[in-house]
Structures
1.
Amino acid sequence: MKFPVDRDTRRRWFDVFMSGAALVCVGLALLPLGSILMEAFVRGAPALTPNFLTQPSLLGGIANAIQGTFILIGLTSLVALPVGILTGIYLSEFGKGRIGVVVRFFVDVMTQTPSVVVGIFAYSFVLTLALSGLVPRTLVFSVISGTIALSTIMIPIVARTSEDALRLVPTSAREAALALGIPRYRTILRVVLPSCASALVTGGLLGIARIGGETAPLLLTLGSSREFFSGLDQPIAAMPTQVYQFAIAPSLAENQAAWGASLILVLLMLGISIASRAVIRLRAVKR
Amino acid sequence: MHALRILRGGTRARLSATPGDLVFEGLSTLVALSVVGLLVVITVILYLVAQESIRVNGLRFLTDTIWDSVSQRFGAAPFIYGMLVTSGIALLLGVPVSLGIAIFLSELAPPWLRIPLTFIVELLAAVPSVVYGLWGIFVLGPAMRIYIEPGVQSVLGFLPLFQGRPIGSDVFTAGVILAIMIIPTISAVSREALLAVPDSQREAALSLGATRWETTRLAVLRYARAGIFGASILGLGRAVGETMAVTMTIGNRAAFFGSLFEPGQTIASQIAGRWLDASTPLELGALVELGLILMLVSLIINAFARLLVGRFLRVGEGAE
């Protein structure tokens, strides 16, 4: 009896089948991405009225949440960029010995800590201070608590991306500057940092992209506010927590507002992601 | 002037240790050490706030199945169980798909398609968790209830895992959304592992007359299996810590479940769901103790993953 299809044909068809299966996997990943973007546009766009974009949530808008997110990103960047970049400089330029290994390990552990745990920490930290009378009790749910949480998430990301960026600068550039008699700190500040500026920007943008969409830590620390920013020691609204509150609310109008806020949040986050890659591309072209 | 200094001190080990250098090195060292200090502070603070719960509940916390703020009795067992089951579903569904993507991107796709497609898959990681949650409530949940869960039931309904009336906001939906969320991590790291396979491996298989799939299976996948395994562990690390998308889709019931079509709760979702309602210091302490457990679990998972795939990692990948 002869086998209906010979062995080589079978192998070739199986090859085609497996290639098709791999392609299907790509499709399976793109399906949710496409669906999320499409639903956000279709359900969210009608919610984007002038009133929605300019009024605080007390009056049915999300302007206070947009403002809150920008304030939090600004404050967190103010803390995390200098601290993160200095840590990166230490790791790349000074931390050669055993201490460097330990610092790098701890920074890595911090990048992997679940963000909800960081939220618990920021809340517990301020609560502990408040219970011992060092800070007022109102500070527990406040802009400051939220900034502590987001900074704890952003610092290790900026530290590791800056370290990688600094390491890409060739040693010869440092040696050239040192050979001219320029002190080490000025070599780092005036030669090494400028030549990897775009990589540092990418790292900063990556950090902002991570914290801008964080919800759980803010849910635990911001408190709830339906009005515009009223002080660093007061609760504040933010886009991600606002989306959550709108999403679990029982009314259809609020659910639609959740999609509207999501649309803005997604566009913002995708924009930052794409921008950080554009900076990489720019660098590649310049070289 | 500096040149002079170097000439004068020509034989000294540190040619240019100006005061400015010492200050700068000191400052950056101090900042770096304070970042280490921050992690120590985190651990100490979590322990301090959880202390009351650790003292009252003891080891029973890990096995007790009741979470009741009226009788002030707190146990973590259903949440640990929920975390394990949802992460298990996520891996079961997410790993094969991610592997398919990695194979397509590194072995099969035409060169002009690789970069844009890699970028688009990575965009899945840029969508905020809360947006996944929103999509889970209003799009995926209903689709699960109406199409997918009855479909699965009609095939595998004889298993106790798939019994009961599908409700759409249950453990299975949370697992599916986790699977989607860990795909970018696993596929990116697996792709790096596949790209690290030397071309001589592929050429050897091809020269023996292997088809493209046979080459991939015999020469590429076998060579990269440690990296692929590590990538999956890394995805697991992301899944256990994921909070908002799970909180919004899992149905939030603090109890054991027999069927995947029942609501449940994970450690992370219990923390997010109960946090603002915690009425006593003991309940707050119990939630913080849950956080400590979560931190420990993700630390172990990520350390293991790093051991396997550390060289393929870029910053920011890993647990959320």
2.
Amino acid sequence: MLRYIAFRSLVALFLVWIVVTIVFLLLHLIPGDPAELLLSGGNVAADPQAVAAMREKMGLNAPLWQQYLDHMAGVLSGDLGVSFRDGAPVIEQIALRLPRTLEVIIAAALIATGIGVPLGTYAAIRTDGKADAVISLFASAALSTPVFVVGSVVILIFAQQLRWLPAGGFVAFTEDPAEHLKLLLLPAGTVALSLLAVITRMSRASVLEVLQRDYVRTARAKGLPVRAVLRRHVVRNALIPVLTVLGLEMGTLIGGTVLVEFVFNWPGLSGYLVSAVDARDYPEVVGIVMTISVLFVLLNLVVDVVNAALDPRISLGR
Amino acid sequence: MTTKMNRRGFLATTGAAAGTLSFLGTKGAFAQDGGTLRFGLSAYPPSFDIWTSSGTAAGTIKMMCHRGLVGYDKDGVMQGELAESWEVSEAGDWTFHLRDALWHDGTPVTAEDVAWTVLEAQKPDSAAYLQGQLASITSVETPDAKTVIMKTAEPQAVLPGWFASYNMCIAKKGSERDSLMGAGPFKLASVDRGVSISVVANPDYYKEGMPKVAGIDAIVYADENLRVAALEAGDVDVVEYVPWQAMAQIDDNAELQLDTTFGPFMYLTFNATKAPFDNPLVRRAIGHAIKREDIAAAAFYERGAPLEHLPIADASEFYNADLANEWSYDPEKAKALLAEAGYPDGFDCTMLSTAQYGMHQSTAEVCQAYLSMIGVNVTLDLPEWSTRVKKGNEGAYDIAVMGTAADNNDPDGLANVVDGALPLSYVRSYGLETPEISALFAKGRASFDTEERKAIYKELEQIAIDTAPIMGLCWREQGYGLAGNVSGFSNMPGQLTFYSGFTLEAAMLG
């Protein structure tokens, strides 16, 4: 198993290197000069002399291969560089923002699994019944409604009409825990809704499949009560594909909460990425994309390992 | 002695500053019990550089912490700030007399700080917004700690206006360019990068009884709809840049206030380095081909007004009623002008705008539709804003949609948009030389006589009408949304709307 993890980690490192290289090159290919943008604020064009000086300061006048080597050398020594915009160290900014994004995703995942697995299981054991139809309809609707629509609607209902929750924003947990949780509720709930749909459908399909298995019949035949069969044999086995999907979805969400962060003004990593791309802040963009790809690859690895723990038949090495 | 300075009155008399400070008002309850105002910013400032123009949000924060030599009151009348009075000599030298003001660190604001500010902002690497104007200041003398004398190569009637700009605030000698340690009404308390900026009242501020509130939390709401939702939900007390589609909704809400002004405007720029837009006849034809009311309707939800001349507001004393509709919608005239220019069947061209801002895109779409009616086939180029800026600066377009506000309500403030002598910029037409207009701007700046200036700018506008260095499209309302209990804060008139941050010192929560 250790050998397998080591091998997978090497492949992961290779993947991350490829991603970073592609992003680095793409960034330099797309139009937009960070120096010019920085100095062109507020409808005034930058003085060419000032732009040239700024490019020199940013290190953009060196040949591309040298910029690439410098950057990679920095990455290897744990230095992701500083923001072009205000000189803030990129790694510090990521360390500040990543937990905020992870918080939304983890809260959403907890809500989604907490509700989705029982809901899917219930739909499966009541298959083709009314409950199943209602649950399936709900899942389809939740899945096909874009997050920005859900976000706008919940803001309209809970913030503007009922005034139960703030429309958006962020307060650090250490500053005001209650306010922090209140602010977390809407974004996490919004992300959870689409995730919930996926998990419900996946649980339903998976439970249905397991229910057909011979060992379930055997368990029932030997007189085990339905509840025990469900708990010990069905749900436990049905969880494996659900967990795989959950892991992959969470990975996608790390870079994909952009709309939710934007709609709720949640200052996480994806919103940071968008503003960095807008400003062509190369060190920030490369640093964030690298972080996201590392996490994505890591999550995949974790999913594999957890699956193995849940089902000893899954053999990691072969 | 203190001064309340009206630019118009001043220019007419060329006299020494006189009068008393009206803005001091009665002493109110002092700041610290005034509560904290929550201000919804439209963006996180890309930089706090004191002399660089980095957009409205950055300007608002700078106006909380910094002050210039002069400024504007809520009606747009120039008033003293760090300078309590100022006068110009026969030779055109400007003398500013400083008041007893303190920096946030408790040290006094001195003439030396002012001289240092000017010299630093003049440096080529300062990226100062007013660098072009400041270049004409040849020396800054400081005969004593409270007196500053500025000498210019040519007399400059508009010099005090430069020092009223929120991009020309005074910095303490030796301070960092992006420091928010100033002499303004609020002191920086904390910054959460990308999220919020908090300031607290400066107890040593030179205006007694101000600021009224104990502090301001400026929170970034980049999404315009959320900004409005936050105001409606009571999460913030003031929001800037109210989206046009939400203005009616705020106006109709009994618990909120909407404060708008006509100031910023939309217009077209041209690439004059190649045919067909090197020809003024073609540029004028474009102007006559577009029905402006449809832009106001499509892009600004009826909160716009046609602009068929240079963007000089009808409330300005420099407004020329007889020229106001010279670029009016007249498709027959447009076709005739095209034929005269040698394009009877029209031509194909690209129009640069941006998909990032709805009003820029809608404006371009309306123009495209109307131009097709005179045979001009427009292909829209709608990249995101950064690329649009770059393409504009490089002249990678034929015709482009742009929106901005002039530097101030004086016609000299339009130089930034129409003066072809200034460096290449996406806010102006590309490679379009305007020798007569440039000369008239210089003449206007050097004149201290209002009537003479009126004549100069009328001649300038007439030439602009004939040569169409830009093509006016539409005025747009610019609005702030306020909670019902906010008073004292006001949207400043016309082109000064982005200076409204100055009035935060008087804002109260009642």
